[in-house]
Amino acid sequence: MDAEALTPLYTGAEVRQAEAPLLEAGEGPQLMARAAWGLAGEVAVQLRHRRGRIYGTRVTGLIGPGNNGGDGLFALALLRRRGVDARAVLVSDRAHDQGLAAFRQAGGRLTQSIDADVDVLIDAVIGTGTSGGFALPQVPGLTEALARESTAVVACDAPSGVDPGTGAVAQEVIAADLTVTFGGHKLGLMVGAGAQASGRVVVVDIGMAGELARFRAEAARSRSVVAAEPVTPAPRRQDHKYSRGVAHVVAGSHRYPGAAVLSVRAAVQTGCGMVTLYAPGPVVSLVTAAQPEIVGTTAPEIPPRATAVAVGPGIAEDPGQCAALDCALDWAQRTGGRLVLDASALTLLAERGEQLTAQLPASTVLTPHLGELRALMEAAGRKDLCEELEASPVTAVEDFAGYLGCTVLLKGASTIIAEPRSRTLVHRVQAPGLATAGSGDVLTGVLVALAATAGPKVPLAEIAATAVRRHGQAACRLDPQGRGGFGASALIEACNGAAIRASAGTFD
Ligand SMILES: NC(=O)C1=CN([C@@H]2O[C@H](COP(=O)(O)OP(=O)(O)OC[C@H]3O[C@@H](n4cnc5c(N)ncnc54)[C@H](O)[C@@H]3O)[C@@H](O)[C@H]2O)[C@@H](O)CC1
Ligand SMILES: Nc1ncnc2c1ncn2[C@@H]1O[C@H](COP(=O)(O)OP(=O)(O)O)[C@@H](O)[C@H]1O
Fold first, then answer.
1. pLDDT tens digits for 457-483?
2. Does residue 413 have its Cβ closer than 6 Å to ligand 2?
3. Looking at ligand 2, which atom is closest to the CA of residue 259?
4. How many CB atoms lie within 10 A of CB 280?
5. Domains in the chain: how many in total?
6. H-helix or E-strand containing 147?
7. pLDDT per residue over 141-164, tens digit each?
8. pLDDT per residue over 55-86, tens digit each?
9. For residue 462, what is the domain's CATH number?
């Protein structure tokens, strides 16, 4: 994955540090003007989308005492000049002086409550200056506005109640439909409960990219959001099936034969030299019928030509699969080959208690969802990290990866991928249709195929991020409106490597 394919993620504190020299140089008002311009522009898009016009629509801002409130007031002033009925509720006894003056001058009106016919509610109570807990301001009409479909809630920089550094949310939060954030992507809007409360996130460039870049260069540990399709390995002219990479999959059981079909078909569609499968005989027959190019085996040993192995989808309650897991762990330990452990393989690992930490080769990636991750953390004797998962999901996943000495990929609406001594990658996708049985099996298939074909120098976390992005892209392709009308099988065709390579860089 090349550097351009990754967009950095910042904590609120990092953005504040990066902007400090600009503020010292007296550039604060310009930064705020650009932030307000960006916010007003995005609100205007919402108004046009919802009401078909801007003139005569109604926007109310909840205005806090700091610069976040200042952004809100300047944005309201700009909207007022475009004919919007712009109102502001001051939630504190202080407000940004120049912002308030601009708002008044533009003809904005102060009010004490939020009316039922407001089109957009701007949350400009707190941004990166947040500290401590957060309680909803006592404003008549606020609770109703937050619940009303016809009122869009747009957060200024970060939803009030979200910690922009971690993704933790306070007991109360102003959940947004859209967050317009300034300068760069903020970590807390991309992961955990913070991501849920942020809705769609738009980043507005306010002219501090240089400062952020310099700041990043100095940062000891960097985190990135995966923003573009990285270069993925296309077959070379001289390749033969074994040089291209062999993905071996341990999946499926009498109880869950379909998991093997899904993961193996996804690996084939992603594209590699060969896909082999270890499963009980009837499952091998079923998968071969669905995908005749695969090579099935009923012996748990890892085929000698395998270049990556995945163990887990649907192997529950099959005693032979436990032996296969041990073969795979041993194989990865001996060869340094890439190993993907998913689903039931994670349950089997968790059953080994604290022993599990000793058994994981560094070339392993674990792909748990939240429940599986908690179980693994508890089994490994790291219950403390379960609590950290709420307060700071990225740190918790990073700490666990460090503790285990292998890569951990936490699945969900936001995926967090932490590899020890590497930068952490976050992928946030607007594809709720992925919450369907078997979609994780598809991800495992995509991942093992990419792991089998990627060159030895590509870090495992970056391969995993590519798989996650493809999986998300496939869902967006199938279901652009996010209505959820597809099953995991349909995802497989959309993960097709050739089609994705052809459109690389054009899809987002
Ligand atoms: N510094 C600048 O000139 C710029 C600042 N920007 C905006 O300014 C924001 C940061 O401004 P500030 O540093 O003034 O901080 P904020 O405006 O985000 O918040 C600080 C204020 O909120 C109150 N507050 C903090 N935590 C609270 C809580 N839990 N419950 C209730 N009230 C709480 C504090 O009393 C403080 O007065 C950014 O998020 C961004 O929106 C942008 O305009 C870009 C330029
Ligand atoms: N709300 C959501 N939005 C986006 N992606 C999601 C959402 N819920 C789940 N996913 C993705 O769908 C997949 C589900 O995997 P998993 O929980 O293992 O399901 P299964 O075991 O049924 O295959 C993961 O890749 C996860 O990141």
1. 888 998 999 899 889 989 988 998 888
2. yes
3. 23
4. 18
5. 2
6. helix 142-147
7. 999 999 999 999 999 999 999 999
8. 999 999 999 999 999 999 999 999 999 999 99
9. 3.40.1190.20
Closest-CA residue to 260 (of 177, 212, 199, 316): 316
- CB-based burial label for 442 (10 Å; 0-12, 13-18, 19+): buried
Residues 194 and 313 placed together within one structural domain of the fold: no
* Ligand 1 site-directed mutation target among 37, 39, 128, most atoms within 8 Å of CB: 128
* Contacts of 37 by beta carbon, 8 Å cutoff, 6+ apart: 75, 78
For the ranges 101-115, 229-243, 407-421, 481-495, the one whose mean pLDDT is highest: 101-115
Q: Is residue 400 part of a domain?
A: no
DSSP string, 451-494: HHHS-TTS-HHHHHHHHHHHHHHHHHHH-TT------HHHHHHH
Phi, psi of 153 (to 5 degrees): -100, 120
Looking at the domain assignment, is residue 401 inside a domain? no
Q: What is the pLDDT of residues 317-346, one digit of tens each?
A: 777 778 899 999 999 999 999 999 999 999
Q: Give the closest ligand to the alpha carbon of residue 122.
A: 1
Question: Of the bound ligands, which one is closest to the alpha carbon of residue 491?
Answer: 2
Helical axes 383-391 vs 393-404, angle rounded to 10°: 150
Exposed/middle/buried for residue 203 (C-beta within 10 Å: 0-12, 13-18, 19+): middle
Taking every pair of Cα atoms in the chain, the longest distance, rounded to a whole number of angstroms, is 79
Q: Which helix (H) or strand (E) holds 341?
A: strand 338-341
**3-state secondary structure labels for all residues of 264-305:** HHHHHHHCCCEEEEECCHHHHHHHHHHCCCCEEECCCCCCCC
Predicted complex: ipTM over 0.90 = no
- Ligand 2 mean position, distance from CA 175 (Å): 22
* Annotated binding-site positions for (6S)-NADPHX: 259, 314, 369, 441
Q: Domain with 207 in it: what CATH number? A: 3.40.50.10260
Answer yes or no: is the C-beta of 435 below 6 A from any ligand 2 atom.
Answer: yes
Judge if the beta carbon of residue 432 lies within 6 A of ligand 2. yes
Joined together, the tokens standing for residue 289 give 């019928």
